[in-house]
Amino acid sequence: MYRIGLTGGIGSGKSTVSSYLKEMGYNVVDADQVAREVLDIYPEILGFIRRRFGQEYFDEKGILNRRKLGDFLFRNRERLAEYESVILPLIKKEIFRRMEELENSGASICFLDAPTLIEAGMHKLMDKNILVWVDRETQIERVAKRDSMDHGQVLGRISSQLDIDKKKEMVDFVVDNSAGVEETKREVREILAKLGIFKGAI
Ligand code: ATP
User: Looking at the domain that runs over 2-194, which CATH code has it been given?
Assistant: First the structure.
């Protein structure tokens, strides 16, 4: 199976591109979805959060408040690193289990949409990698609007990731998502054609 990594910065447009890929019928493993689901697959993670960070990140029904935990972790780098040392190996394990499942079911192409594809070293396990890029100002503006955050909160999240311009040097293709979505889709089709896996008309 041909494996293609899809990454970018926070709010650079990965979901927009991966939705388009799914719409066209490609298989996409979504690392963010896996990151949410591992909490159900491995309940010990919730136990770890409760013990290490406190009960205040859970509501009265015992449901994790991901937003509150995220705000806390992105302001406390050491705690974030500690949390990631527990959760990342489990996310990776589940991602590769799902890819293997796709391969065993006869899939010939699979995309992995992962915000921290490069930080986690998973890009090295892909055949090709695509970065969805936007300029910093557009990125801050879009995330602030989408997530109703102020610029400080957005910057905290952006600076927890490797600089998007550094990521440019580590991938095979860059999609510039600074303009409209139609232009982005056209760029995606062009890349698929270059890879020899686009079957429609450009
Ligand atoms: P995250 O990693 O934070 O989940 P993402 O990389 O998946 O983000 P998206 O959610 O696809 O990014 O896009 C971020 C926001 O910008 C969304 O509100 C989306 O609707 C908007 N957006 C994406 N692409 C464009 C575009 N080309 N023009 C205008 N708005 C866009």
Answer: 3.40.50.300
CA dihedral 143, 13, 36, 27 (to 10 degrees): 170
Could you read off the pLDDT of 106-131 as tens digits, one per residue?
999 999 999 989 988 999 999 999 99
What is the C-alpha separation between 164 and 117, in angstroms, rounded?
12
| Domain spans of the chain, in order of start | 2-194
Q: Which residues does a 6 A CB cutoff place in the pocket of ligand 1? A: 8, 10-16, 115, 142, 146, 177, 180-181, 184
Q: Which of 6, 7, 10, 15 to mutate to test the pocket of ligand 1 (most atoms within 8 A of CB)?
A: 15
Give the Å distance between the CA of 44 and the centre of ligand 1: 32
Model-wide pTM > 0.85: yes
Tokens of 132: 């969805």
